[in-house]
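We both want to read discrete structure tokens more fluently, so let's practise on a single case. Once you have written the record down, we can walk along the chain together.
***
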Amino acid sequence: MNHPIPAIVTQEAVRRLPRLALLLFCLAYALPGFVGRNPWRSADITAFGYMRELALGHTAWLTPKLMDVPLQIDALLPYWLGAWSLWLSPSWIAPDFAVRIPFIALLALSLAAVWQAVYRLARSPAAQPVAFAFGGEARPADYARAMADGGLLAFIACLGLAQLSHETTPALAQMCFAALLFYAVAAAGTPRPSAILSGAVGVLGLTLSGAPSQAMLIGAGSILILLLDREGRPPHRALLWLAVPTLLAAALASGLDLWRWRLHWPPTDWARWNGLGSLLLWFTWPAWPLVLWTLWRWRRQLFSLQLSRHLALPLWFALVTVGTTVLTPAGDRALLLALPALATLAAFALPTLDRSVSALVDWFTLLFFTSSAIVIWVVWIAMQTGWPPQPAANVARLLPGFEPRFVILPFVFATLATLAWIWLVRWRVGRHRSAIWKSLVLPAGGAALCWLLLTTLWMPALDHARSFAPLVRKIESLVRPADCIETFGLSPGLMTGLAFHSDLRLEPTTDRASCPWLIVDQGLHSQTPEIISPARWSRVMQMGHPRAGEEDIVIFQRLAADER
């Protein structure tokens, strides 16, 4: 007999994951990557530059600019949060870390919202496991808690979450507000003030973080799903507190002129679609195989006339965000918003997994993350000692000018994390085989381990490769710190790096400027060399970031006859 509910779960299988262990695990994942580093190139340092300008009062709050360059995305709220944190922080806190404080809170809120959303959806009647004839099935609250633990582990295990969730960019803010909105709709009908507040904050936050269209689509679709949920339709007031913020967000987006359609149908060439496919595969791993398993095992509910909220709601969130990924250039940052919903769908695969499938997930995860951790350790040892010689030579070739150094505290954290991974593997293969969340312990633990190792052992190398500090030091070796420099065609990120990592005075190129030095973007100069007058400027040299071919610039010195 094929039962319409595929979840068959005993009370023994929903044993509690210790709360302290789960909390420490989340901290071990959330904090590394936010501390002990410089602002990274491109989106991270560019966002920091706008926040710094706002905090210093150099630009308008509704139309932020950095060296007269406006925002590329109308995401006001994330820049406001960083600027407020920078403005309120004491002077002993580094400015680049001060702007990260609210983003640490946004990541923590995302983790909490995912757990709560899965818990509320698992409490719905259609999501409950099969009732046994003589009892012994999982109790609703215990089952929902175990499913929420599994959903949170699936969320952390997603490979695409690691880097983008630790940058001070609008992408993290959008993901957080999408997760809050997801929780609010999942908890619709409950009298919890946190759900009502999360709905309002989620839809308004998405609107002010550069995604008003997604906020409208998700909000409208969620209301429709709640109306069609015949088994657990929420009262009208629950729909009202979701509809009112949605309408208010639409009015706010119109008033602030935030509506921008950046959708582009991707070209039909194979390279573009192959790139999208690769992005979906690795970015959402290991959630996507479990999502497919969920859709197959729960297909009787998915395609029945009676809509099931625990399937329809995360599926709608995922479809909207994955569709945005396909139709926007910044696919990885758009796909970040899909991870809470995909993790939820992955969680509902857990009570339906066969033992052989669970064992396959465990062995693949064990081999993949253990091998990755060994590689990270071997390369770190090679950086410190020169042995093995081949990894050391690869580091020297990829990062010219990098000088490795031993720092005791990151080494201690990396060692403790490695020992914890060894203990976790022994625990997984030895005991507690019946817990339904067991199949996601190793994927989540392995992802957290590798991320922590990268942001401790490899952080000096990552900083050298991903920050502007090495390039600024090269410029300072040529230009006296007290001198002023005119800039032309530089990216906002590079201008922020020059201002943050040095005491150089930067001025835009104008007829009135009289700085002795000029820095021009190499690509712009090669296309239009006539923009620099040889009667005024003498080309000194071309230099770039230690990563070859990235951020190349040309430095000019003003001719003595032209000095005023």
